[in-house]
Design goal:
Elements: H1 4-7, H2 11-24, H3 27-35, E1 41-42, H4 43-50, H5 54-66, E2 71-75, E3 78-82, H6 92-104, H7 111-135, H8 139-143, H9 149-167, E4 171-175, H10 183-189, E5 192-197, H11 200-213, E6 218-222, H12 225-229, E7 235-241, H13 250-260, E8 261-272, H14 279-284, H15 293-302, E9 306-314, E10 320-327
Parallel strand pairs: 4-5, 4-7, 5-6, 7-8
Antiparallel strand pairs: 1-3, 2-3, 8-10, 9-10
Organism: Marinobacter oulmenensis
GO molecular function, one term: DNA-binding transcription factor activity
Protein name: ArsR family transcriptional regulator
Amino acid sequence: MTTLRSQTPEPSSVDTLAPVFKASGDPLRLEILRVLRRDTFGVLELSQMFDMRQSGMSHHLKVMHKAGLVESQREGNAIFYRRPLNLDSEKLTDQAIRQIFEAVDRVALPDELQTRIDAIRDQRAEQSRAFFSRHAGQFREQQELIAAFDLYAEPTAEVIRQRQARQHWHKALEIGPGEGGFLPVLSGLFDQVMALDNSQDMLAKAEQACSEGQLTNVELVHGVTDDLLATGNRFDLIVANMVLHHVPSPADMFLDAAGLMADGGCFIVSELCSHDQNWAKDACGDLWLGFEPEELTAWAADAGLTAGEQLFIGLRNGFQVQVREFWKTTRPPRNRAGE
């Protein structure tokens, strides 16, 4: 027979829950948690978004951080905030936090708030576009301050070759082709290739590469993934080489990739792991200082994609590159170690 004692949580356990519910018991804080569902924002951005003084926003974030509702992420000299990457399903407080997230995620964002979020993303995107417009001629030199092209392009190409040999795909999309250095690989493996970039200057570089390489099956498109979604195009493979740290909302790229992929398709990403080299923002136009692998996995899962093989490449200058694949299927190919 179950006793009353066994049904009642220990007082100490209840005590641990109180700070979580107290910190979340405010409409503004719940709205902050809602906008952090897939995004990372700085204090200044959140103050702008909610039209309040920075000191007031900092206070709210400090309380939420102490309760475990948000965690900080340093991007150079700025502090950004996001939802916790890892919640322990066995931990009572983390269970409560997850339930709070699930509840606020069912609430639609007000139109006015969504407009302000879009404005912040537009500011970030313009910053990236302006950089590549100014430095298109020095693109390769600046990118190789961090990672030489071949160091991540070759492993990425090898993953694609292995998958293509079994999948027999026909149509590929490269997001952010840069100077077009990876397009010959895709052109040789696929019947149709599309290259999408929001910088006309970089597309001109890619067009030159296509002309010199006689890549007749490559279509160059100016725009962003949002634009492409409206066209109804679907791809077997989407690849983004060292692109995520340049886009205003990396999580949204996973959502867009999922929408642009055919069933059974694959999204392959090569990207920097999280680092603390702030000079990369000015020298290379980076909006983000890399990403934790768990961030990419969480964004992919939120978009309905399943993580597959992963490869990590350590560089002599201290940077680390991750090559990841994400599948639009319930049964992705097993990692090589399990084959």
